[in-house]
Structure formats: C-alpha cells, structure tokens
C-alpha cells in the first residue's frame, strides 16, 4: 500500500508564499498523475491542482491559477505545490493524492491514494 506524506504547511501572512511537498513511500511508485486538494473549515474538499507523472500536463483550479505551481521530482517520488500571493481564503488542510490510472483529474473519486494532509493558515 502506497503511503503519501505531506509536509511544508504552516502559518504565513497574506501575500506570502509557501511550498508544500508530498512524498510517496514506495521507491517504484509510478502513478498516472498526482494531485492536490484542500478543505477549508466547514467546506467540502476541493480540487486545487494536478500533474501527470510524465510532467507534460498540469491542471489548476481557477481560483489558484497564476498563483500556484505544481511540479514533481520523479527521482524523489515527490510532488510539490508552490503557493504564492496567498490570501486568507487559501487557509485549509492541503491533501496530496495519487491516481493509478487515467481519470478525471478534478474528481476526488478518481484518486486512489491520499495523504493525511498538512495545514496551511494564511493570516490577514
């Protein structure tokens, strides 16, 4: 069973930047795609961004496009989410997820493995 472990969350002021990371436990891990979702207090979990493990396609939710950048390092089995120009509405628990096969990149149900999440808090 693949385990995904997020790190890099924390507290940042509005306008600041933060990078969260997600490492997969298996050395031979080769998903079709990796994604980031987030869940704010009292709200449903929502799609943020995803990337094909080949690196040739990336996808972003409209509300983060132009501010967030997803990337991956295959050799380290790691996917990153660089978050710039953060605002309080970005406060949430950020979850990493992995798809085994090609599927809708924006749907939670299309991801097979999930991390435990890392808290990102943006103060005004």
Describe the structure.
The protein has no helices and eleven strands. It is mainly β. The strands form two sheets. Strands 2, 4, 5, 6, 9, 10 and 11 form a seven-stranded mixed β-sheet that branches. A four-stranded antiparallel β-sheet has the order 1-3-8-7, with no helix packed on it. The radius of gyration is 13 Å and the shape is globular.
Quick structural summary:
This protein has 124 residues and is mostly beta strands. It has strands at 4-7, 10-13, 18-24, 33-39, 46-52, 58-60, 68-73, 78-83, 92-99, 113-114, 118-123.
Describe the secondary structure blueprint for this structure.
Blueprint: E1 4-7, E2 10-13, E3 18-24, E4 33-39, E5 46-52, E6 58-60, E7 68-73, E8 78-83, E9 92-99, E10 113-114, E11 118-123
Parallel strand pairs: 2-11
Antiparallel strand pairs: 1-3, 3-8, 4-5, 4-9, 5-6, 7-8, 9-10, 9-11
Radius of gyration: 13 Å
State the distance separating the first and last CA atoms. 40 Å
Tell me roughly what share of residues is in helical segments. under 10%
List segments where confidence is low: pLDDT < 50 over at least 5 consecutive residues: none
Give a count of the beta strands, DSSP E runs of length 2 or more.
11
**SSE class:** mainly beta
Order of helices and strands: EEEEEEEEEEE
Major sheet size, sense and barrel closure: 7 strands, mixed
Compute the number of helices: 0
Give the averaged pLDDT, no decimals.
94
Strand content: over 45%
Shape verdict: globular
């Amino acid at each position: 069973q693949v385990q995904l472990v997020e790190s890099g969350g924390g507290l940042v002021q509005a306008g600041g930047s933060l990078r969260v990371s997600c490492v997969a436990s298996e050395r031979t891990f080769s998903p079709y795609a990796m994604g980031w979702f987030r869940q704010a207090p009292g709200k449903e979990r929502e799609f943020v961004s995803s990337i094909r493990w080949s690196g040739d396609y990336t996808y972003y939710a409209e509300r983060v496009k132009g501010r967030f950048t997803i990337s991956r390092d295959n050799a380290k089995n790691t996917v990153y989410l660089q978050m710039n120009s953060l605002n309080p509405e970005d406060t949430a628990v950020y979850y990493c997820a992995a798809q085994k096969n090609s599927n809708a990149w924006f749907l939670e149900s299309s991801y097979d493995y999930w991390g435990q999440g890392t808290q990102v808090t943006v103060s005004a």
